């Protein structure tokens, strides 16, 4: 599949851009008293995990012995912002067989990939929901919103202090080696994938499509609470200006299950997250937030699709 960095895409692909401008953190100068839960742990920058968070990765499409087939290998991929950060090209899993049908002929599995995925995630998913339900019962009146998210993209693998990419055998893929590398999901996919979901997947599973919205999430840093990130959910109005809909604290990941789909050109991430809706902001704080959001300019050439004058 073709990877198009957000800052190089044409405007027709803005709706499939990664909605969160990860490198854009406007500093909100007001001293906002946003208290993060003490049960949270900040393990990686602003990505927050619950104390009991479950993280799992596995591959679908392995051979009968549970090994990576010989036609699966690792290849470097050019991603400018990742290369600037880590100083080298990350790796992606690539299927050297030309078509998906050819791949099915080579790997004649009695079970569908979805059966394998369901079997591998069921226990962790039910366990996480049970823990979350008990926690929500203890929260009382605090507004906690659980969200189950399925994201499509391509997993990129990066080296770390214990395992450099130069030491990785790229032609003979080993699960044990991949588990030692850092992994992230690259979600910039062509607009045709979203069109296929709307036109094909939605009717097939028996639900009705209501409308499509351009939604942006603006992340703000609170200088009084370095571990908290304020998320401003915004929609795009007809005049191409942003409208602030909701303000909440950063998501807390309860469950993250990554699935490398070897017979597909897309991978899957399943996440169970929670967020706390902010309802105690003063009028002055809300007005300051709205002024900041209203000043944003849509710009498809910028990472995240937004810029500030």
Automatic annotation (TrEMBL):
Residues 42-309 form the DUF7903 domain. Pfam families: DUF7903. InterPro entries: DUF7903 (IPR057225). Residues 1-21 are annotated as: Disordered. Residues 1-12 have a biased composition (Basic residues). It comes from the Eukaryota. This is DUF7903 domain-containing protein.
């Amino acid at each position: 599949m073709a990877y198009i960095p957000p800052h190089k895409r044409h405007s027709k692909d803005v709706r499939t851009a990664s909605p969160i401008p990860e490198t854009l953190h406007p500093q909100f100068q007001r001293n906002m008293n946003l208290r993060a839960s003490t049960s949270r742990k900040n393990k990686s920058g602003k990505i927050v995990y619950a104390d009991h968070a479950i993280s799992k990765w596995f591959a679908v499409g392995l051979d009968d012995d549970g090994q990576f087939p010989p036609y699966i290998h690792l290849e470097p991929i050019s991603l400018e912002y990742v290369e600037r950060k880590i100083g080298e090209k990350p790796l992606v899993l690539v299927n050297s067989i030309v078509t998906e049908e050819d791949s099915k002929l080579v790997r004649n599995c009695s079970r569908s990939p979805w059966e394998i995925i369901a079997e591998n995630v069921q226990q962790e998913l039910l366990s996480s929901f049970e823990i979350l339900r008990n926690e929500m019962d203890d929260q009382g009146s605090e507004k906690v919103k659980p969200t189950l998210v399925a994201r499509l993209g391509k997993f990129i693998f990066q080296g770390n202090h214990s395992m450099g990419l130069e030491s990785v055998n790229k032609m003979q893929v080993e699960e044990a080696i991949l588990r030692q590398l850092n992994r992230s999901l690259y979600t910039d996919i062509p607009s045709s994938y979203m069109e296929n979901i709307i036109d094909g997947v939605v009717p097939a599973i028996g639900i009705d499509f209501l409308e499509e919205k351009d939604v942006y999430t603006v992340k703000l840093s609170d200088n009084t609470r370095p571990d908290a990130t304020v998320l401003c959910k915004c929609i795009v109005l007809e005049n191409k200006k942003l409208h602030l809909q909701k303000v909440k604290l950063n998501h807390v990941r309860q469950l993250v299950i990554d699935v490398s789909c070897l017979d597909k050109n897309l991978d899957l991430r399943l996440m169970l997250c929670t967020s706390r809706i902010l309802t105690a902001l003063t009028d002055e704080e809300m007005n300051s937030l709205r002024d900041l959001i209203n000043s944003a300019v849509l710009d498809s050439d910028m990472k995240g699709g937004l810029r500030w004058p």
